[in-house]
Structures are given as C-alpha cells and as structure tokens.
C-alpha cells in the first residue's frame, strides 16, 4: 500500500480497503494517520460523552464517539472522511451501517499537542464548509473549551474554562459542566509545545479580524515554511 501520507487522490472506496491496523482520516483525498489517544484525552472524552448521553436518552438525537466515520462530502468527491472524538446527529437519514453521511449537528474534538493545528484550523474549515452547526475544541491541558457556532456561513467563537457550565446551542436545555469534565489534578498532562500555542494564538487573532479561511491557510503555510528553514 506504500506510505499513505505521501499519496493523494484517495476516495472513501479506497479508504474501506485499508487493513494495516492504522486509523486514518481522509482529507481532500490525502490520508492522515491518527495517533492513539492518551489517558487524559480518554478521561475528558468519557465525561463529555456521559453528560451528552444522559441528556439525549430517549430523544431523537444520537451521540457517537470515535472511531466512527463521518463522510463530509459523500455526495460529491467522497474524499473527506473524519473521525471526530464525539459527534451528535439529529437527522436519522444521515446514518447508515458504517457511519454518517454529511454534516453532524455537533462535533467535539479533544486537543493534544500533536493535533492542535489540525483540529483548530484544518478541521474547523472543513466543518464550517460542510455545515456543522456547533463545533467544540477541548484542551485538557489548559482546561479550556472553544465553542464555534455557525451563523450566516461563519463561525463565531466563545471561550470557556474552569468551572463554567456551557450551554449546548444545538440541543435546547443541554449543558456541559466543566467542573466534572476537568475533574483531575493528578493526571500528568501531555507535553506542551510552545510553537503550537503561538500558532493557535495567531490563528485566533486572525479569525477575530474577520479575514478569510484562505488567508489563514496561507499564513499558516508561511509559518510552517519559516520553521522548516530555521
């Protein structure tokens, strides 16, 4: 099969044939290998999933967790397959035996030092374009959450942390208690990389100025090129 990360032009049909034991996401036809989640990641993911599951029990909306395939452009090129950490789907017609066809109503990604740029930039753009109504990025190390709400084709961003209780925009009456999500104080955090934090702050500053996603992508590419030349 070769090095998938160096090859392009894959579709969901190709994706289904991969059997090397590695989890991949497919973005614009390019395969990206996924690292195994840390204990801290799993602790946070489990608590959010539990709170959502309790609220949604008996309702029309369904909550799922990775690994669970989401085909964001199944009706066109079918070359984007992502596996969000947690997702909520309220339209039963989007579900099939393998996963989700189209945009979930809500997506939550748990950040780690290795995936921060991927989830805060690349996936945020994908989810916005696909029409994901609510997108959360959860940082277990910093004990913070950024909530992106889709309004008029753009995401507006709100920050939460500490003991905040976050209202779930797409699920009326649902709230996530961060005091229960970030309950830990003895679990060793993942090693942080200053470069990721710097880039994230730059990205956030760009977004607040209202510049386009295309300009953000160019800026990130320039930052990466600069780091490689050092």
Describe the overall structure.
With 230 residues, the chain is α+β, with helices and mostly antiparallel strands. The strands form four sheets. It has a six-stranded mixed beta sheet, sandwiched between helices. It is built from six helices and 13 strands. It is globular, with a radius of gyration of 17 Å. It has one domain (4-192): tt1808, chain A.
Gap between N and C termini, in Å?
A: 33 Å
Strand content: 15-25%
**Could you state the CATH homologous superfamily?**
tt1808, chain A
Quick check: average pLDDT?
86
Largest sheet: 6 strands, mixed
The protein's oligomeric status is single chain
Secondary structure: number of strands = 13
Rg (CA only): 17 Å
Write a short abstract of this structure.
It contains 6 helices and 13 strands. By secondary structure, the chain is of the alpha+beta class. The protein has one domain: tt1808, chain A, CATH 3.90.1570.10.
What's the arrangement of secondary structure elements?
Elements (H helix, E strand, L loop, with lengths): L11 H4 L8 E4 L2 E4 L5 H18 L5 E4 L3 E3 L9 E2 L3 E4 L9 E3 L4 E5 L5 H15 L3 E6 L4 E8 L2 E8 L3 E3 L7 E3 H4 L12 H16 L3 H17 L1
Parallel strand pairs: 4-7, 8-9
Antiparallel strand pairs: 1-2, 3-6, 4-5, 6-8, 9-10, 10-11, 12-13
Helix pairs in contact: 3-5, 5-6
Task: Provide the descriptors you would attach to this structure in a database record.
single chain; about 230 residues; alpha+beta; tt1808, chain A; 6-stranded mixed beta sheet; 3-stranded mixed beta sheet; about 30% helix; globular
